[in-house]
Here is the input.
Amino acid sequence: MSSPGSDRVLGGRYRLVREIARGGMASVWEADDSLLDRRVAVKLLHAQFADEPEFLERFRREARAAARLSHPNIVPIYDVGEDSETRTPYIVMELVEGGNLKDRIRQAAPLPDAEIRTVGATLAATLEYAHGKGLIHRDVKPQNVLLGLDGRPRLTDFGIAQAVAASGLTRTGVVMGSVHYIAPEQVRGGQAAPQSDIYSLGVVLYEMATGRVPFEGETDLAIALAHAEQTPTPPRTLNPRLAPDLERSIMRALAKSPAARFASAAEFAEALRGGANATARMATAAGVAEATRRMPTQALAQPVTAPPRRGAGTAAAAAAAQPTPRRTARPRTGRGASNGLLGLLAALAAVLLAVGAGFYGLASLNRSGLLPTDATPAPTSAPTPPPTAPPKPVVAPTDTQTPPTPSPQPSDTPVPPTPSPVPTAAPTLAPPSPTPARVVPTLVPPSPPPRVAVPDLRGRTLDQAQAALASAGLTVTVRGVNANAERNTVVDQSPAAGATLPPGGTVALQVGTGSTAVPDVSSLARDQAVQTLQNNSFRVTLRDRKDPRIPSGFAVGTNPAAGAVLPRNSEVELDISSGR
Here is the structure.
């Protein structure tokens, strides 16, 4: 079904098909480009503004500024023109199929952390590109983030963008942009800066994480004042699944003072990307640490099980177990190892001879031939037997009289009076078995020191805040700001209350200087203008002033002018239009 004006043709080539969006300054239409045979989007200024020089200049400035931008995440400008019949300016842009980020938030918020990080880092990097070109968006909001069918976010509507070098085109103190996403300095009448876009993007990420904007109110004025004076609810209070580091990045972007936010949009993007990378690195490191913790304990468990083998019922098992510890102490017991091997061969030969000699000879050989092996546990129970051990090998010649043929071998058997080193060496091998068992606990890494919760310091005096941080083991930096607060009263803090820091971590405080900037109240109704000034702790004096441009009963301006910094409770004159 066609919309009103769908048969309208602009510039002799762009036929309007249907209206797809409408804002306070212009409407956006889907149109057919008859020259290039493609669908495009046409942004058309509202008719009531066509005769306003200030709005026309702002609209044309958008076209000139946006046309200089060439970035994959910025909607490109194809053409700029003016309707020949109505003299209404228009801009021709790429038509991005799909919805916008606001629709996505309405459908699925709170969104996953990974999506918040990806979209946020992409938009921050896009803003960094624009800032590098000398442009500030000034109206970052989910409605201006188009999500194409390919999932790539694209930033559009630089309609309120302003070249930093040409800031004189807009009066100081004029508040522009969507009130739910406006930065505090814009509310107070200050100039927009790159940190203003960072604040607005922080609001967008807050909404993605929680499904709601930080501040709501019955009027736009109430919402704007909340941005200037109130601290938003921490997003993890509304979405406990949100990662703590992601919450810290969002809250830092939402700091009241521009200086307390990220120094640049690039730094904001890096923080969003770094949180995801740090999580992956921590998971990998934890896996490596766990594997490292398990591996040594498995290797060290083997020596601990060695003693039961020495306590086996058969003497042959004990003799077989001896070579292993001797290898570990090769520099001291190499000679003993060879003697043990000879002793084992002698024992086997004696057993064969005993089978031929009879049961009595077998028992006798067991007592003499295996003496070096049996002597190993003897020192552990009674230190005195070693001196009695040498006489027993002397009796061994009785064995040489019995078997006439292997007489050379029994002569070798008594030669190892060197078995005496074996008993002395054996006790030196016993201590290593408990030593590895004591090493195991040292492989467990010490637990990290406990982190310190940051207290809520807003509203406290500087002395009270410093004392609270000192008692918590934290350090502090202080910066004065011109805010609506008593002198030396904490206005804001970073990190926010509830965040954790390592012992000795630093908390940045912003304290009031006792002065504040005069807000811009021009064009507001008299009561709203008075209330705004009083909310900023100014005393108001009304004056009538004839100004044909301002309807009767609305504010014309103030004396001192908006943006002037005055002590709190200073008097400000408010001019109210009396009409023609």
Q: What stands out?
A: The two ends are 46 Å apart (CA to CA). The longest helix spans residues 265-304. The CA atoms of residues 259 and 276 lie 25 Å apart. The first strand starts at residue 9 and ends at 10.
